[in-house]
Amino acid sequence: MGWILVHHSQEVKEELKKVYVDDLKTDEIDTHSIFRYYIPLSILVCYILPTMIPCYFWKESVFMAFCVAVSLRFVAMLHVTGSTNSLAHMIGERPFDKNIRAADSLLAWFMTFGDEGWHNYHHVFPWDYKASEYWGYKGGICSTFVDFFARMGWAYDLKTTSADVTIKRRLRTGDLSSSIWGWEDPNMNSDDRALTQINYPQKKTQRE
């Protein structure tokens, strides 16, 4: 996780300036509500509530509640967050592009509840909001969270990658020695696909 301590080069700083965030800057809720209350909300959610809940519900001492629910949790999460990007570039399979360091890592998947496990896919298809070829909890809690709000109409125009595109990319640049069996198996015939039942198909949403 030492990469966190490295200062950004001037080239990286210049590229960061090109990131388009004008939609966030002009969003009244984002600019006037979230950022205005960011510091008090952070203190409340990160420090006060984790200390008060153990004290109130199971009569824990304030000192022990703060040491475990705040300090230990904070240190553990920092290490998990900082090391994930390293693990996902060192350990795992590269089913979609064997020429890059990013890898699909079950260890990273476990540490981040699924959200950073499919890193090879994420680097090959960076526009996919799921950051994974999978749906639901296997793909990650964050994508499930986004899907929930998409059903409410709060998230829309969710971009993802079709199975045909992922299979073609895997056959072109992927490490074919990586194990794959199931829905995206290249050997799966069209009849099996046609007979497969898909529950809760994603509905296309349109910008109002």
From TrEMBL:
Cofactor(s) required, per the database record: Fe(2+)
Name under which the protein is recorded: Fatty acid desaturase domain-containing protein
Note on domains (UniProt): The histidine box domains are involved in binding the catalytic metal ions.
Species for this entry: Parthenolecanium corni
Record membrane topology: Multi-pass membrane protein
GO molecular function: iron ion binding; stearoyl-CoA 9-desaturase activity
Protein family according to the UniProt entry: Belongs to the fatty acid desaturase type 1 family.
Main location group: membrane
One GO biological process term: unsaturated fatty acid biosynthetic process
Places the protein is found: Membrane
Cellular-component GO terms for this entry: endoplasmic reticulum membrane
Residue spans crossing the bilayer: 37-57, 62-80
UniProt keywords, alphabetically: Fatty acid biosynthesis, Fatty acid metabolism, Lipid biosynthesis, Lipid metabolism, Membrane, Oxidoreductase, Transmembrane, Transmembrane helix
